[in-house]
């Protein structure tokens, strides 16, 4: 691995999850969701993670509609099958 971003010659043990900078054991900041090089990166990552969660929450809404459409299609198929079977009887 590369040297620490802040200390030349000191081998890095981790990388900042936000910007990807190599970090030594002394420089890394362990925050919620991973390791970061600075408070700034930790903050921007948590903002990013929060935004991703919001997008994900919005995305789950139309999938509920999709499930409903799938149910309708399933019922239609069952109804057609019922009609076909009825013809044969
Ligand atoms: Zn960083
Ligand atoms: Zn360092």
Question: What are the main properties of this structure?
Answer:
single chain, 89 residues, mainly alpha, two-stranded antiparallel ribbon, 1 helix, 56% helix, binds zinc ion
How is this structure best described in words?
- It is a single chain.
- The protein is mainly alpha-helical.
- The protein has one domain.
- It has one helix and four strands.
- The chain has a two-stranded antiparallel ribbon.
- Strand 3 (29-31) and strand 4 form a beta hairpin.
- The longest helix has 50 residues, at 39-88.
- The protein is rod-shaped.
- The model has no long low-confidence stretch (mean pLDDT 92).
- The structure holds zinc ion (2 copies).
- One zinc ion binds next to loops.
- The helical percent reads 55-70%
Oligomeric form: single chain
Output mean pLDDT: 92
Neighbour order of strands in the largest sheet: 1-2
> What's the total helix number?
1
Order of helices and strands: EEEEH
Alpha-carbon distance between the termini?
Answer: 74 Å
The count of domains is 1
Q: What best-fitting shape do the alpha-carbon axes yield?
A: rod-shaped
Overall structural class, as computed from helix and strand content, comes to: mainly alpha
Topology, number of strands: 4
Percent strand equals 5-15%
Bound compounds: zinc ion
- Taking Cα atoms only, what radius of gyration do you get, to the nearest Å? 26 Å
**Major β-sheet, in short?**
2 strands, antiparallel
| Low-confidence parts | none
